[in-house]
Amino acid sequence: GESVGLHLPTLSVQEGDNSIINCAYSNSASDYFIWYKQESGKGPQFIIDIRSNMDKRQGQRVTVLLNKTVKHLSLQIAATQPGDSAVYFCAVPNSGGGADGLTFGKGTHLIIQP
Amino acid sequence: DGGITQSPKYLFRKEGQNVTLSCEQNLNHDAMYWYRQDPGQGLRLIYYSQIVNDFQKGDIAEGYSVSREKKESFPLTVTSAQKNPTAFYLCASKRRSTEAFFGQGTRLTVV
């Protein structure tokens, strides 16, 4: 089955700096990738997604990069703010369209230093 | 507003008790999911349902049961057979080929 891994359980950055959170996946046939943000005691919140026919996708202050060759994706957050402090998960659908659920990485806890 | 509502937010269970967690969505999504989250861990799939009156086991279904009698509702029962039920439980729903939307979770504690 699919497995998803994160490189760092915790990332500490200074307020205003850029953050990069990494994720690796195992199934080369995966065609859809999602990043979620989870604040303490709350459910995950969708941030951004990317399909395998793209290498890069930008949102508001966030960019996701996909490298299919090495099965790696990253989430870049520009000019981090205190409100960005949360756990970030990448997720991959278990099958086409994700009808049978998502596989999540263990998450990276982003800590913003004042 | 459209969304997913989980209740209660906190739930306490005595040893040997069954408890039921509620999940309701008004997003008109066909598929619904239950995940379990332990401290410092990612989410693990318990059960999912792609359509009314049908559901499938996920990776950690033992000790849990579900029903899907209505499109809007997907309750999860944590039975006495679940030996380590203390966790954060998350319900989600989605349309085909889109991201999943999550509720705010139920924190279950065994006392």
**How confident overall, as mean pLDDT of chain A?**
91
The total beta strand count of chain A reads: 11
User: What structural class is derived from the secondary structure elements of chain A?
Assistant: mainly beta
Strand content of chain B: over 45%
How many beta-strand segments of chain B?
11
Percent helix of chain A, as a range, is under 10%
Helix content percent band of chain B: under 10%
Shape of chain B: globular
Task: Please describe the structure with a list of short key phrases separated by commas or semicolons.
heterodimer, A: 114 residues, mainly beta, six-stranded mixed β-sheet, five-stranded antiparallel β-sheet, B: 111 residues, seven-stranded mixed β-sheet, four-stranded antiparallel β-sheet, 11 strands, 0% helix, 50% strand, globular
Structural commentary:
The complex is a heterodimer of chains A (114) and B (111). Chain A has 114 residues and is an all-beta fold. Helices cover 0% and strands 54% of the residues of chain A. In chain A, the strands form two sheets. In chain A, strands 2, 4, 5, 9, 10 and 11 form a six-stranded mixed β-sheet that branches. A five-stranded antiparallel β-sheet of chain A has the order 1-3-8-7-6, with no helix packed on it. In chain A, a hairpin with a 6-residue loop joins strand 4 (32-38) and strand 5. Chain B is an all-beta fold. In chain B, strands 2, 4, 5, 6, 9, 10 and 11 form a seven-stranded mixed β-sheet that branches. In chain B, a hairpin with a 2-residue loop joins strand 5 (43-51) and strand 6. Chain A binds chain B through residues 4, 9, 32, 34, 36, 41-46, 49, 89, 91, 94, 96-107, and chain B through 4, 6, 31, 33, 35, 40-45, 48, 50, 56, 58, 90, 92, 94, 96-97, 99-105, 107.
A few lines on this structure:
Chain A is an all-beta fold and 114 residues long. Chain A contains no helices and 11 strands.
